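Researcher: Good morning. I'm working through a list of sequences from a screen, and I'd like to move beyond sequence-only analysis. For each chain I'm collecting a predicted structure so we can compare shapes side by side. This is the next one on the list. No need for commentary yet; just the structure.
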Amino acid sequence: MKKFLGASFTIAFVATAAALPASAANLPAVKASPSNQVPVCTTPGRLMAHLQSRNGSIDSRFDGIATEYMRHGEKLGVRWDMAFFQMILETGNLSYSGDVSSHQNNFAGLGATGNGNPGESFASVSTGVKAHLQHLLMYAGERVENPVAERTRKIQDWGVLTKWQNSIKGPMTFTLVANKWAPGSHRYARYMQKISADFYDRYCNAPDPRPELLQEARNEPSQRKISGAEIAKRNIDEQRKQGVRRSGLGGGSLSRAGVAMRSALDAKAKEAKTSQPTVNSANYTQPAAGSKKPEVTILNSSKSEADPASARGAEIQTASVAGAATKMKLPDKAGATCKVWTASYGGQRAIIIKAKADNTVNYTVLDVHKGSEKREADAYIAAYAKGGKKIAEFPSQTKALNKAFKLCPEG
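Model: Good morning. Structure tokens for this chain:
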């Protein structure tokens, strides 16, 4: 391990040194500009595929690191793609074989000056990424207000780089930064160039394996109104994949509560001698003219399938959600309408968010990533569902949609 002004890094993992160009790498400017943009093909999904091809045993808590580089990089105006490649170099593909440990969330070896000094630690992956990008911005001559890293503050306040920065004619490039960041290494910039070239040669024209990460980085969940018919078709398709035969349109997804509700409605229809409305997991169709619309009740999933009486009782009961009892509520005002929406950050889990707008109660089924449920829910509520609340969480969108359409039959 060697001492450097910016950080420390290990070069033991680089097995392709002989293939590197003999001349110094011509890396782009640190600050993004109209003429120095991150290539459009550079997405968090592709970057993660590149990183995982270099290290197949990355800790799962780093799953969103490329997303954080894009999010903070765009806000700070930094070429975050090159910063990501520098992170790969500094951490040995996130294997951390030097003085810095993975739990420190220190992706640029900030403060790690060798001789066993581990450097700074940051509270989260996001904070560590921000610290790295701020440090680069400081190198480029920008004043960073309230920097995350103590090392950034010290170098900035003490004017350590001022004389050198003033000597630079033209934009501050990653090549120039490398010469100062790691003055004892003559190959630092060329290693970065090799990592960059590998990515753009192999992944830039390949399909994005995880396009949802791009939406997450920009906090842009896809949102649209979804029809009951579409949900019913989706449920049927999913059940067919699982090899389970459904009884009626989406009937299989109603489970115990749905069967009990169907039994109760069948009995009620016979008693009233009216045509039976179609009941499915997506919505409830309007009954025939002159017949009474069935009363919708949220049922306890532990009731017996054969017990029609379980479809009666209190208007609000308890439904089982992932093993925990969660209270579900129907729209508060009798005259209020309701709608069911879907939104997605691309994850496999789903939550239901309830929010009121005028006289409409909106139930949004939001797809979220495991481990990021609260953060993504809070971000969605802040941007799209002011005053909304998370009322339930499910292991899949299908189960969440089934519950949402029970809460709001009219969809």
